[in-house]
Write a sequence for this structure.
């Protein structure tokens, strides 16, 4: 059985200390589309040699930025083939501005297991503190695992965002690069689904797809730049559900509704009749 809930639920799957540099942050920012206008001074702040701006989504890659091996879904009570796994949702809550360089420790725990019958959803929470023990960020991630259900767990519930019944207040289009996934994989996610055409075909795709977290970071950066004046520190939290695939080179249509201290967002693919990319997207402002 791929999942043993008695072992997996509540298990600490990792406790790791890691460091990052300003160059790591700048590379991540390039991987999510920063620097497309070399004459835009605000945009170039993402690429400053010493103090680049740090998006809250950098938290999703910081701990494993220098990994060069494909990830494995091997944890206490969990053994699942990478080819049967897709990222379901991601949320990052930032407790204070993330520095451009630093050292931190992350503790990751399996906090929920959902049994969907033919599939399973594994939800992990990662709590990160700086080298002084002060909270930096808390991240929650879910992965959808085909063929891993049937272990007798609860089906679970889903939190659906209620969008206003009106046209969006803002519509932004952001084109991704043909090499976007090849850039993003340098941030520590070497899953061949995003770089190997044969692996992608075996997984049911006509060509490699963009990392879901790549789309997540691109949408966040675009909204910060267009609607928050490029001020990354105004983001208190950012969460999204991965609703569909994006192929590198496609254009994202980002719709945003103002909702007091929140921005409610969707992202779709222009070239494929607004095929969904991200849904249930909520940005909470400071």
């Amino acid at each position: 059985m791929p999942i043993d809930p008695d072992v997996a639920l509540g298990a600490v799957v990792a406790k790791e200390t890691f460091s990052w540099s300003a160059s790591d942050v700048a590379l991540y920012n390039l991987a999510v589309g920063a620097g497309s206008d070399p004459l835009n001074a605000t945009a170039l702040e993402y690429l400053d040699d010493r103090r680049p701006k740090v998006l809250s989504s950098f938290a999703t890659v910081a701990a494993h930025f220098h990994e060069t091996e494909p990830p494995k879904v091997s944890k206490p009570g969990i053994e699942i083939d990478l080819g049967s796994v897709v990222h379901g949702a991601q949320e990052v809550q930032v407790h204070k501005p993330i520095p451009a360089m630093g050292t931190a420790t992350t503790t990751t725990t399996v906090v929920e297991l959902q049994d969907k019958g033919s599939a399973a959803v594994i939800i992990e929470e990662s709590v990160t503190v700086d080298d002084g023990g002060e909270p930096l960020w808390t991240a929650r991630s879910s992965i959808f695992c085909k063929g891993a259900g049937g272990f007798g767990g609860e089906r679970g519930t889903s939190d659906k965002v209620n969008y206003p019944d009106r046209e969006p207040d803002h519509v932004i289009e952001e084109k991704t690069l043909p090499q976007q996934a090849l850039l993003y994989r340098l941030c520590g996610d070497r899953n061949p689904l995003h770089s190997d055409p044969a692996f992608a075909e075996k997984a049911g795709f006509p060509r490699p797809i963009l990392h879901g977290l790549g789309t997540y970071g691109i949408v966040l950066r675009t909204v910060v730049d267009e609607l928050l004046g490029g001020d990354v520190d105004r983001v208190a939290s950012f969460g999204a559900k991965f609703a569909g695939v994006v192929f590198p080179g496609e254009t994202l249509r980002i719709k945003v509704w103002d909702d007091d201290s929140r921005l409610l967002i969707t992202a779709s693919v222009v070239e494929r009749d607004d095929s969904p990319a991200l849904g249930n997207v909520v940005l909470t402002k400071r």
In short: Residues 212-227 form the longest helix (16 residues).
